Amino acid sequence: MGFRMANIDGRAALVDGVHYYDVETTSAGGVPSDPMEALTYADELSELQATLDTSEPSGRLADVTLDAPVPRPRNCFGIGLNYADHAAESGMELPTSPVVFTKFPSCIVGPTADVEMRSDGVDYEVELVVVIGLGGKDIAKKDVWDRIVGLTIGQDISDRPVQFSASPPQFNLGKSFDTFGPIGPYLVSPDLVADPSNLRLSTKINDEVRQDGTTSQLIFDIPALVSYISHITTLTTGDLIFTGTPDGVGVSQGKLLQHGDVITSVIQDLGTMTNRCVRVSDYATP
Ligand code: ZN
To answer: How far is it, in rounded angstroms, from Cα 273 to Cα 39?
Structure first.
């Protein structure tokens, strides 16, 4: 059981091999086409995925451009310093409670979107992204996996000068420039992932591997993060949590992103996401 969902021209589609299957068409109207609405039909999507062998494909993945699998989350959270090696390279103490910030939902873009940079201080951070299914309040750790509809790859792109310009630092703006939240390529239901607590994740910039870690290094694991946040704010279907990045970010190596760089993000069982960096105009200084 389980399903692998993409967003093609604003319509939810299931993916199998080289083909995609529009969910509304394939389900004869049983599952809505809107990718946000489709998230509330996880059981139906799993059943539909199991029938794809005998269904007519809607087309070939190679012929289409994928949009963000979760295009309009109500809330989007990021977790800072959630890998010990990354906290160390940042010169920070290990956090004793989760460092939670906002990525504005307006920064979310698809898995092949260009990253538009407005300074020479922009950085990459590959992250496992959790997608909330049935939301709610005060979710117990033991119940968290029942509330997660899927996992996907994310890049928590960060403009370091803006992230650290205020004192004390406020991460939200520097991590929320338009295009700073590529996610995808697919939303993968948790039952198709062998072990979410031990997934290898990496970033390559052009041909150079910069990050290579595993989610087993998370300081606050997924049940802890979802439970903690849900005791503060009600979680809603489609809310996203970027769960933190392993070591190897550019700022710690003096290797920030440059115009034309290609970011390749890979997470085991979830696929590969490729985004090109484009240096656009500068932002206004206050
Ligand atoms: Zn991050």
So the answer is: 21
* Cα 209 to middle of ligand 1, angstroms: 18
Size of the chain, expressed as the number of residues it contains: 286
DSSP state, 140? -
- The sign of the dihedral angle between the CA atoms of 239, 125, 211, 116 is positive
Q: Give me ligand 1 centre to Cα 47, in Å.
A: 34
Beta strand ranges found along 105-231 (DSSP E)? 108-109, 115-117, 122-123, 126-132, 148-155, 158-159, 181-188, 200-205, 208-214
Residue range 237-263: mean pLDDT, rounded: 97
Ligand 1 is a single-atom ion; what residues have CB below 5 A from it? 125, 156, 245
- pTM for the model stands at 0.97
CA of 182 to the centre of ligand 1 (A): 12
What is the CA(191)–ligand 1 centre distance, in A?
25
| CA distance linking residue 205 with residue 147, whole number of Å | 34
Please list the helix, strand and coil fractions of the chain in percent, rounded to the nearest 5, in that order: 25, 35, 40
CA of 266 to the centre of ligand 1 (A): 15
Buried b (16+ CB within 10 A) or exposed e, 167-183: eeeebebbbbbebbbbb
Q: Could you tell me the distance, in angstroms and rounded to a whole number, from the CA of residue 245 to the centre of ligand 1?
A: 5
Say how many Å lie between the CA of residue 171 and the centre of ligand 1: 10
CA 157 / ligand 1 centre spacing (Å): 7
The token pair at 127 is: 């992250």
Residue 286 to residue 278: CA distance in whole angstroms: 23
199-239 pLDDT, tens digit per residue, is: 999 999 999 999 999 999 999 999 999 999 999 999 999 99
